[in-house]
Amino acid sequence: MAPSPSSPSSRSLRRPSRGGDGDGGSRPSRPSRSCWATPMGVVVLAMLGSLAVLAVAGPLWWGHAADRPDPSAVLQGPTGRHPLGTDHLGRDLLARLLASTWPSLLPAVAATLLGAAAGITLGALTAVVGGRARRLLGAFVNLLLAFPALLIAMFFAALFGAGARGAVFALAVACAPGFARLTQTLAAGVAGTDFMAAARVLGLRRHRLLLRHVLPHVAEPLLLNVTVAVGSALVALSGLSFLGLGAQSPSYDWGLLLSQGLERVYTEPLPAVAPGIAIVYAGVAFQLLGEVLAKTATRHAAPRHAEGPAPPPAPAGRRPASPDHVLEVEDLRVALPAGDRTIRPVRGVSLALRRGEMVGLVGESGSGKSLTALALADLLPDGARATWNAHWFLGADVGSLTRGERHRQLATGMAMVFQNPASAFNPALRIETQLTEAVRAHHGTPRDQAVEQALVQLRRVALPGERRLLRSRPFQLSGGQRQRVAIAAASMLRPDLVIADEPTTALDVTVQRQIMDLLRRLRRDDATAILFISHDIALVADTCDRVLVMYGGTIVESLPARRLADGARHPYTRMLVASVLDLTAERDGTPPTVEGPPPDAVGTDPGCPFLDRCPQRLDRCAVEGPVPTLLAPGHEVACWRPLPLAAPPGQPETEEAET
Amino acid sequence: MSAAGEVRRTHEGSRGAGLALYDVTVRHHGPYGPITAVDGVSLEVAPGGTVGLVGESGSGKSTLARAIVGLDRPSGGRITVGGREYPARRAAERRRWGRQVQLVFQDPDTALDPRMTVRQSLAEAAGAFTRLDRRGRERRIAQLLELVGLDAGCAGRLPGQLSGGQRQRVAVARALAVDPAVLVADEVTSALDGSVRAALLGMLRDLQRRMGFAMLFISHDLAAVRRVSDTVAVMYLGRIVETVPADALPDGTRHPYTRTLLSAVPSLHGGRRPAGEPLPLSGEAPDPASPPTGCRFHPRCPVGPSRRPGRDVCAVQDPWHESARVACHFPYPAGDGADPAYGARPDADGA
């Protein structure tokens, strides 16, 4: 696979604004080498290297000495000539130990590979066969798992006949069910995906499904398990040899040496201890290899801890907050580390919300609207840094508050409603607990009273059967119900500001309408300010008082919602408006769309973020970012060349023709 | 047949290859017994034509889509493409069904194997039913990418390196790689932004004109459905309750359910809504395991027995029958659709 020249990380970071979970998981893992450069990596490599050298060179160097009997030196203890002593035929034990590295390791690796191959095939099959066969296979695997592995190994070793080959097969049989079960669990996650369904519709045969789609997805954890299993197999095989079920004289391995040494362990401990050490050494080497591989696999996914959470450099003593504003922020910027660089998804956002005002924040995926919301709520992901010139919330300078004060202020004064109501609740807790915990924690309201308040809120969001609902858990509700409960939960503390981040994107139009009506009612009854974030410009125009259009981390236009259809002046807003499909739009003809690449997330260019897609850019646009300019009361545009007003809606082409 | 010839199959080339469903029923095993997710759906999509299927979540749209492509087994009825029936009995023929019918999924994030490059995904699809040598395959991939408006440089990328709109284009290219007679598009635009969505719709329409496949366009987005379809079928609780030409939207629709759906579509031009707009839908969709008696829509109907006196028949008698264009006892009059009994929007306090 050829790595693309474009920046994958910037692309993936553009997505958190919508279904942000989709991307992180689907990004391919690229093993980094850095784990091998750690002390543990070096140790593992050294241990495995020494084993490999011994396995190859052992028989060549010491093979002869290991097999030469010396009747004059039978059963000797450690001497200068024989550091570990000799066995009952006078053969040098050190030579035998070193020469048997290969015959000790090979069967362990072979048994693991055989067992893994059988188990993985069995487990992966469950992902591609039909329902009944899947249940039968699953039952079979579970049945095998019910027996202790070592017991199975001993049983089959006896059945296959004592000897190295029999022991290998026996051990393979014993470790197969574990792999089958693991693979089955991992493959079940792949089996339900759309891409598997697509592959089935393409009529791919089962083996292709297995090889192309199932196995690559489960390979990583399986590989780790195989390496760890080699270590266990080594110990188990030695055990079998020790029991007399493994290698038989005249061939020998560490297990057999151990068993022979054990006969005189009270007079000469070393002949028994040395093979034991060898077994432990090799076992530990493989286990550690698994550890390092696991770290390599997970390292890229681990969150990066940068400079710590948002130390706000607030230049104190700036102008005070205006009294009718719930929230005021000036020049908000967010920086996120992505790989080895920093991207700037939010680059100087200034906004203010009055009490009881509903403001829409629109923009496409990656415009920075969700990160703006998260920054305002102090919920930025690990490693992200927010800075601002001024940030007032409910009259308090957020930058000058202590961490605890800030959290308390935000928790009681602000509430968030998220896009996905399914993941916004803890699935294990009852609705009652989740609705009441905030008032109980912040206001110290006793439980009965909190429950009464919850009932009132649920009635307000028009959910019948409130008492029954309180006892239910999130998964028992439909998506629309959950979102209404989320709004009820948000209004429990009577917040002054609700930030709703795409609260209806996952819902049907009819449910969307209900949710929007609810938010409007909340605004009307409690004078709550609402910041409504959406990519749906028609929905925003339909419900909000004022609209902020965001592009490339900046607000490019801010205007009253009712002027959106005809009065937008920024070329991007005009394009968005033109691309709206609604029931009154012309049916024929291709809908106008926003052409060109989305803005660069690194955001170091000095010019206008919309430059690349703008149909009427000037030379100035490339070198100087446009400054927001007031064109009419309540209408600000950040553009060096705002479009004239006269153009009829839905036809930006007329302006494009001018350039 | 050359690969190029396959892509630009003319309208005549796929003559008679439309999709037809006769009384298709799909049952699932629910926790409390069988659930009839799709209940006696009959519809026809002409070659080169598009039928839009709309309805809420849970109305059975996606189950129907899965049944059409053979992912779910219908428990009754017939599915035919070009007059040939879905071969339910023979596994080998079932596999070849994908040659005729392809599906594009809702979520571009999961529709593509995240570990396969665009090239690999497309090569797999292109080689699924026809043998291609290496050069033929490369040519075909380039052709497919061009078809969906992606540049050739995308071929080496992984889905994680593409934007949502680009991924959905790759998914469309994969479905079209086998040159199907029928394309089922299941909510293909609902995960996309406005402008990206419009572009994808335009592309689908354009591809259909060039390749002549029949399309079943499933969505809860009525504006999108209106844009791409010739006919719109409205589904409620597993049944089609209204079939109407797309031109007639919004004012020519007659079923109260269709009207409620239409009234919920947000508009940039708030004032220009269809006249006589009914109340927004109240309540939750009923459990398909035990649908209401009589008209299935009556408990939620804005002009039903709970809101209008003398309409008790709705709660008793089912207005649905197989050939009904509007399954309603008291449909809105065709044409203007204004219902004199209706006032202004009750919730006009907003913007």
Please provide a written account of the structure:
The complex is a heterodimer of chains A (659) and B (351). Chain A has helices spanning 8-13, 21-26, 39-67, 93-99, 101-128, 131-145, 149-160, 164-191, 194-201, 206-242, 254-262, 270-299, 369-376, 403-413, 421-424, 431-442, 447-460, 466-471, 479-491, 509-526, 537-543, 564-567, 571-578, 619-623, 653-656; strands at residues 325-338, 341-354, 358-362, 385-387, 390-393, 396-397, 414-417, 497-501, 529-534, 546-551, 554-560, 629-632, 635-637. In chain A, α10 (206-242) packs parallel to α11 (254-262), α16 packs across α17 (447-460) and α19 (479-491) runs parallel beside α20. Among the domains of chain A are: 104-298, MetI-like (MetI-like fold, Orthogonal Bundle), CATH 1.10.3720; 567-659, no CATH class. Chain A is built from 25 helices and 13 strands. By secondary structure, chain A is an alpha/beta fold. Chain B has 351 residues and is of the alpha/beta class. Chain B has two domains: 3-236, P-loop containing nucleotide triphosphate hydrolases (Rossmann fold); 255-351, no CATH class. In chain B, a hairpin with a 2-residue loop joins β4 and β5. In chain B, α5 (118-126) packs parallel to α7 (164-176) and α7 (164-176) runs parallel beside α8 (194-211). Residues 1-15, 271-276 and 337-351 of chain B have low confidence and may be disordered. Classes of the chains: A alpha/beta (659), B alpha/beta (351). At the A-B interface, α1, α2, α9, α10 and α19 of A face β6, α4, α7, α8 and α9 of B.
The low-confidence runs of chain A, each spanning 5 or more residues with pLDDT under 50, are 1-32, 300-317, 649-659
CATH class of the largest domain in chain B: Alpha Beta
Shape-level CATH architecture of the largest domain in chain B: 3-Layer(aba) Sandwich
How many β-strands of chain B, per DSSP? 10
Identify the strand order in the major beta sheet of chain B: 6-7-8-3-9-10
Number of helical stretches of at least 4 residues of chain A:
25
What is the strand tally of chain A?
13
SS-derived structural category of chain B:
alpha/beta
The CATH class of the domain at 104-298 in chain A is Mainly Alpha
